[in-house]
Fold this sequence. Notes:
Helix content of chain A: 25-40%
Low-confidence stretches of chain A: none
Order of helices and strands of chain A: EHHHHEEHHEEEE
Distance between the termini of chain A: 9 Å
Mean pLDDT of chain A: 89
Oligomer: homodimer
Number of strands of chain A: 7
Shape of chain A: globular
Amino acid sequence: MGGTRRIDPVNCSVARALSVVGERWSLLIVREAIDGVTRFNDFRDRLGIAGNLLAARLDSLVAAGVLLRVPYREPGTRQRYEYRLTRRGLDLRPTLLALLEWGDRYLADPEGPSVVVRHHSADDEHACEEPVRISLECAAGHRDLPPSAIHRTPGPGARFVDST
Amino acid sequence: MGGTRRIDPVNCSVARALSVVGERWSLLIVREAIDGVTRFNDFRDRLGIAGNLLAARLDSLVAAGVLLRVPYREPGTRQRYEYRLTRRGLDLRPTLLALLEWGDRYLADPEGPSVVVRHHSADDEHACEEPVRISLECAAGHRDLPPSAIHRTPGPGARFVDST
DNA sequence: AGCCTGAGTTGAGAAAGTAAATCTAGGAGG
DNA sequence: CCTCCTAGATTTACTTTCTCAACTCAGGCT
Lengths: 164, 164
C-alpha cells in the first residue's frame, strides 16, 4: 500500500466521450448533421461510408442521445426516418472546431483551410461574419490561456489508483 | 453537370485531424503525454492498452509529429527511448478540453467530474486556480458564441463537389 | 553465469471496418 | 392487379485492426 495516488486515467470524461465519438466516423457524421444532413443516403453519399457501418454508427449515436430518429413523410412517399441532431450533438461543436483548428494549423492544404467557420447570428445585429476560434478561459476571466497555463486537478467524482 | 456545388466534406481539416488522432487510443495517449508520461510502460500501465498497439500508435504519433522519440539514459542503465510531446501535441489541448467538457456535461458520474482543469501559470502572479473552459469567440471580439451562431463557409483551400 | 528490467515483438483469436449485392415497403405507372 | 422505382437499410464475404498473453532483447547488477 505504498506509493502515491493519482487520478485514475480510465475514469475520465475524455475517455467516456471518446467511447461515444472516438472512432473513425462518429465525429464526421456529427459534422454532417451539424451541416444539416439528416438522411441515411445523404450521410452515405457525402462521407463515402459503408451502409452497414453507417447504420451501426447512427444507431449508436441515437443510443448515446447525439441524434434523434424521427419519422417523417414527404407527400407521395411512405413514412421514412431521419436523424436529427440533439442539443447533445450540437454541443460537440467546440470539439469539432478544436479539431478543425488543429487540422488547419498542421495539416492544411498549401492553399489554406478548406473551411472557415464564421460568426453569424440569426438576428442581423450580431452577424459579423468574422472567423471563429476556440479560446481557453478561466472562471476568473483570464482569457486566451496558453496550453502550458492549465493543469489537471481531481474533481468531485475522482477515483484514484496507486502508483508503484 | 447541373446541381449546386457544396464544400467537399472529405477535403476537410476535421477529417485530416481525425486521420491522425481519430481512433480509440491516440487522444488518450496524448492526454497521458500532456500529463507528463513519456515512457512506453507507463503509457501501457496507465491506459491498459496492448503493447503492440501502443507501439503502433506511438510510431504513428511520432510520424505525425505529435510525439518525439528521444533517447535518454538514466545512470546505471542502458540507453532507452522516451516519447515527448511536441508543440503539435500540446496544441491538442483544446480538443481534449472540449471533449472533457462534453463528457462532463453528458456522461459524468453522479458525484461530478473526475477531473477539473484549472488555470495555473508558472509565474505565481496569474495562478488563480479557477476552472478553465472552452469558449468560442470571433475575430471581432464577440465572445461565448452559442453553437447556433456559427456556420461553415468555404476557405481558400476549398474543393467543391456537385450535388445532384 | 544467471537474473532483473524497460522496452518492445510475435502470434492467435476476436472485433470492427469495407465493398458490393440484396432486401423491403409503399407509391406510381400501366 | 402487377411490375417498377426509391430511400433506407440488411446481408454476406472479405480485410484490417484490436486484444491478450507470451516471448525476446540488450544491457546492468550480483
